[in-house]
Specification:
heterodimer; A: Four Helix Bundle (Hemerythrin (Met), subunit A); B: 101 residues; elongated
């Protein structure tokens, strides 16, 4: 049953991804991309990463793809693109993509066991209020895999405190950069003397 | 259940190569950005798979940072595209040949 679900979700991820790459109109491509991202969230659920699955749907399918659709709408560039005229670049892209696929598949084929190990839940580590999280994790470093959002927060605010802060600064820089980039300069709005 | 890390890594590899193919194949810069996102997502899938396989939360935590950086990257990339469209009236990579001659 779970095998069947895996194959359904995997095809729900891979097939729309391929259709996204090959569809002519950007709006259709964005729709296929959303389908592919939701399929990937389902694959996260199959790996017991429930919190990341929710995050994937919220951030990618919710925020990033809406941004894409807004830009497509704003630029009004749903013109399409003839995909059949350039034979040699298409062949080169296909060959390079296939080579990368074969290389990655050949690299790890037959190297891993065929099943995931059982999760050592924090419930097994007595996460029932009798011990606080720091007490639990002092005995179990590195952080054990867990399905609970609480442990993600714990890891982010202890071991990965500095990267977390740097990510916040990065988001601020991106925000300022986007505002500066999309602000019209004065001579452009007056005379349109650009180019 | 016989689904393990091998199958998830295979899906991840297929998605990554589709992303590479898309970046090289398309001339529409918006779809090239989407293919870039697809590649980042394939890496996320592999990271979560390894994290689950090794019973270690570090890989899953790294996915957080990748998602954040990807969102910032998309915002900046699309802002650049809007600026480009204002000047060149096109987002096709074929038409962005100012340095060509």
């Amino acid at each position: 049953m779970l095998d069947l679900l895996f194959y359904i979700f995997a095809s729900l991820t891979v097939v729309p991804a391929f259709l996204m790459v090959t569809s002519r109109s950007p709006v259709t491509a964005a729709m296929f991309m959303i389908a592919s991202l939701v399929g990937m969230a389902c694959l996260f659920v199959m790996m017991d990463a429930f919190f990341l699955a929710i995050l994937q749907v919220l951030v990618y399918a919710g925020a990033v793809m809406v941004l894409f659709l807004f830009i497509i709408m704003l630029l009004d560039m749903d013109e399409g693109e003839d995909l059949r005229t350039r034979a040699i670049p298409s062949m080169a892209a296909m060959v390079l993509g296939g080579l990368i696929l074969v290389t990655i598949l050949g690299f790890f084929s037959g190297k891993f066991d065929d099943q995931f190990p059982e999760i050592q839940e924090p419930a097994a580590l007595k996460l029932d209020g009798s011990q606080t999280l720091p007490e639990v994790y002092e005995k179990h470093l590195p952080l054990p895999y867990s399905t609970k959002a609480k442990t993600f927060g714990y890891g982010l605010f202890t071991k990965y405190m500095l990267p977390f802060q740097v990510t916040g600064v990065l988001l601020l820089i991106a925000m300022v950069g986007v505002i500066v980039l999309s602000k019209r300069t004065t001579d452009e709005s007056e005379g349109g003397s650009a180019t | 259940m016989s689904i393990g890390i091998q199958e998830f890594l295979t899906v991840s590899a297929i998605l990554f190569s589709i992303g590479v193919f898309g970046v090289l194949f398309r001339r529409n810069t918006i779809i090239m950005l989407m293919s870039l996102e697809l590649m980042l997502n394939a890496v996320n899938l592999a990271l979560v798979g390894f994290s689950r396989h090794n019973q270690d939360l570090d890989g899953s935590l790294f996915v957080f940072f990748i998602i954040t950086v990807a969102a910032a990257e998309v915002a900046v990339g699309l802002a650049i595209l809007v600026g480009l469209y204002r000047r060149r009236e096109s987002v096709m990579a074929d038409h962005l040949n100012l340095l060509h001659d």
